[in-house]
Amino acid sequence: MQHIEQYQEVFINYLKAYNLDKEPSNLYKPVNYILNLGGKRLRPVLTLMASDIFDGKVNTALNAALAVEVFHNFTLIHDDIMDDAPLRRGKATVHEKWDINTGILSGDAMLILAYQLFEHYPPETYKALMTVFSQTALEVCEGQQYDIDFETRNDVTIPEYLKMIEYKTAVLVAAAMKMGAIVAKASKAEQEAIYKFGKYLGIAFQLQDDYLDAFGNPETFGKQVGGDIIENKKTFLYLKTLELGNDDDRRKLIEFTNSTSLNEPEKVTQVKLLFEKTNAATTTKKEIERYTAKAFDALNALNISEKKKDILRAFGQQLMNRNM
């Protein structure tokens, strides 16, 4: 087993060699641009790690890992267009640097390029990878649509929200790990167990992202703290405040959300006070712990050494110990 940094290094070196110097350049330059904007490369690293866990060769999993990363960045291009976002990782988004039509088309090309990367595998492995990947790609689209629908709804339930983040975020983390297991020829039972581990960890990760958006350290979080509050997003914290608060708490939360007179810092402060007063903040932290525990429970079904299970647990703990 390697350290996370070693998987990252192997993957980044492979990514650098994946330079699409093709025509028409205005289709492929945006692809190269978004793929080289940086990031933690979490999902492809998980593919390599899963393959290694099941005694597969890390290098054999590189094309599956690259497919995951290309697909993930395809979703980012289209998400940025839908959100009219000007920046991605501190740089101009693709549709800002080029234009919307180019962003749509380059994103479409990336989805196809992701599928092409599976053609490097033998037929049986190819079929298994394609089955997981296609289902996951569709679920990510469903999750994005749920997220869009929630923007105009005032009756979103917590089960609906959890389903949305499962589809929009967690299933790709889960699929990344399952594909590593497929490449390593792990058993079906082990593929499903590592998928569950990734899914529950992905849900915990997104719930923690909700929490950190409100209560994270602005110097280390990497995004604007309070951004979800400013954008009136119906996060887990928001929904829990509605559920746990009294009538006055609910009235205030909706009032702050709809306010056009409060300045942004004051709005963030007031909403965070409600998150704490109603115990929504504490409940969210407990939910993060619950899903992390469910992820670790999934490891019991794996026929691997305790040492390897400990490595996966340590990775999960590291992921969940981002600056609370």
Layout of strands and helices, then pairs:
Layout: H1 4-17, H2 25-35, H3 42-53, H4 62-83, E1 87-88, E2 91-92, H5 94-97, H6 100-117, H7 123-150, H8 158-183, H9 188-215, H10 227-230, H11 236-244, H12 247-258, H13 264-277, H14 280-298, H15 306-320
Antiparallel strand pairs: 1-2
Structural commentary:
By secondary structure, the protein is mainly α. It folds into two domains: 181 residues, Orthogonal Bundle (Farnesyl Diphosphate Synthase); 138 residues, Orthogonal Bundle (Farnesyl Diphosphate Synthase), CATH 1.10.600. 73% of the residues lie in helices and 1% in strands. The chain contains 15 helices and two strands. It has a two-stranded antiparallel sheet. Helix 1 crosses helix 3, helix 4 runs antiparallel to helix 6 and helix 8 packs across helix 9. The radius of gyration is 20 Å and the shape is globular. It starts with a helix and ends with a helix.
